[in-house]
Specification:
Number of helices: 6
Low-confidence stretches: none
Oligomer: single chain
Helix content: 40-55%
Distance between the termini: 56 Å
Number of strands: 4
Structural class: mainly alpha
Largest sheet: 2 strands, parallel
Radius of gyration: 18 Å
Order of helices and strands: HEHEEHHHHE
Length: about 150
């Protein structure tokens, strides 16, 4: 009898290897054609949705294609953190807004972290980590995560 393939396990295995071996890290290489690509950074106002990931996937496809064409690809990622995108959710947490608190809890935000999110800078730190670890790396994006930035860095 054939054993069923565990595609989720295969995905985790290869993604872990990619990131361990730093195959998407970009360093200058004399004489190699350069290619830079970026997408619109998401605001740090909440969790991403499938529409975000669909749009970001186009950028990832182009980065992979250009690598196959022999280019040295720089594909950094980041988050938009200025203005209301970080202040508004922080103030809602500060006011203990029921809808906001439920939103964070329903998306898996640990209670000890939730208490820190009344600080706009903590909102930025929290969602920056969520975007990289819980979305982009899990999707297997071929970005150079060492170059992560926010609009307040």
């Amino acid at each position: 009898m054939e054993q069923a393939l565990d595609f989720a396990e295969m995905e985790r295995k290869w993604q872990a290897r990619w990131y361990k071996e730093k195959i998407f890290d970009s360093e200058p290489i004399e004489g190699k054609p350069k290619y830079f690509i970026i997408f619109a950074y998401p605001g740090t106002s909440g969790y991403l949705h499938v529409g975000h990931m669909r749009a970001y996937t186009y950028t990832d496809i182009m980065a992979r294609y250009m690598r196959m064409q022999g280019c040295n690809v720089l594909f950094p990622v980041g988050a938009h953190a200025t203005g209301n995108v970080s202040i508004t959710p922080a103030r809602k947490v500060e006011r203990n807004d029921a809808e906001t608190m439920e939103y964070f809890r329903a998306n898996g935000c640990p209670e000890e972290q939730l208490q820190k999110l009344s600080d706009p800078l903590e909102i930025v730190r929290f969602f920056s980590k969520v975007y990289v670890d819980d979305y982009w790396k899990k999707f297997g994006f071929s970005a150079d995560f060492r170059r992560f930035t926010t609009t307040i860095d």
